[in-house]
Amino acid sequence: MRFPGRRKSKHYFPVEERGHIPFQRSVRAHPRATELDCRTCGACCAPEVRLPFYVGLKAADLRRLTRAFRDRNVARGSLLTRLDPVGRCVCVALKGTLGRRVSCTVYPRRPRACRGLTEGSRACRKARRQAGLV
Ligand code: SF4
Ligand code: SF4
After folding, report:
1. Domain ranges of the chain
2. What is the pLDDT of residues 23-65, one digit of tens each?
3. Closest Cα to atom 7, ligand 2: which residue?
4. The whole model's pTM is what?
5. Measured CA distances, 35 to 32, 45, 56, 122 (Å)
6. What one-character-per-residue DSSP string does 69-134 give?
7. Which of 1, 62, 101 for mutating ligand 2's site (highest number of atoms within 8 Å of CB)?
8. Neighbouring C-beta atoms of residue 67, cutoff 10 Å
9. How many Å apart are CA 132 and CA 92, to the nearest integer?
10. Closest to 129 (Cα-Cα) out of 13, 28, 5
11. Which of 19, 33, 100, 126 is most open to solvent, judged by the fewest CB atoms within 10 Å of its CB?
């Protein structure tokens, strides 16, 4: 997930492990990276199916997060999930509605896995397909 002034993002569990949840078909298929706006997407911040946990955290990831955030939102070494306003299961740190307007509330402290998924990459495109955003 990319926000203004940031270059990269993303994930821990391979997108390949996620399945398909029909969502919203509004974006052109195979958009170029320069055409993608993570702020209106968030597909890679959502598991394929409803799960209690999503992004797995390494020790360094846990250290970066504040204790207050960890106490509320981390269990079994992973970030928890929540339901967005339209009932989609998303990472607990994702604010907003998938496919509309989203942001990562821990962006500067986001897990290492979240930094590696780049918009326009194969994993990004797959996540968007699974979320019904292409
Ligand atoms: S799926 Fe791609 S475009 Fe969507 S938030 Fe993730 S990196 Fe950005
Ligand atoms: S920590 Fe942020 S970037 Fe990573 S999955 Fe959660 S909302 Fe997305």
Report:
1. 15-130
2. 333 334 455 666 899 999 999 999 999 999 999 999 999 999 9
3. 94
4. 0.79
5. 5, 19, 29, 15
6. HHHHHEETTEEEEEE-TTS-EEETTEEEETTTEEEETTGGG--GGGGS--TTSHHHHHHHHHTT--
7. 1
8. 8
9. 20
10. 28
11. 19
Residue 45 phi, psi dihedral angles, 5° rounding: -100, 10
- Report which ligand 2 atom has the smallest distance to the Cα of 95: 7
Residues 6+ apart with CB under 8 A from 125: 30, 134
Q: Which ligand 1 atom is nearest residue 37's CA?
A: 3
Q: What is the number of the ligand closest to the CA of 65?
A: 2
Task: Return d(Cα 106, Cα 103) in angstroms, integer.
Answer: 9
Radius of gyration, alpha carbons of the chain: 14
Contact 42, 90 (CB under 8 A): yes
Q: Does the beta carbon of 114 lie inside 6 Å of ligand 2?
A: yes
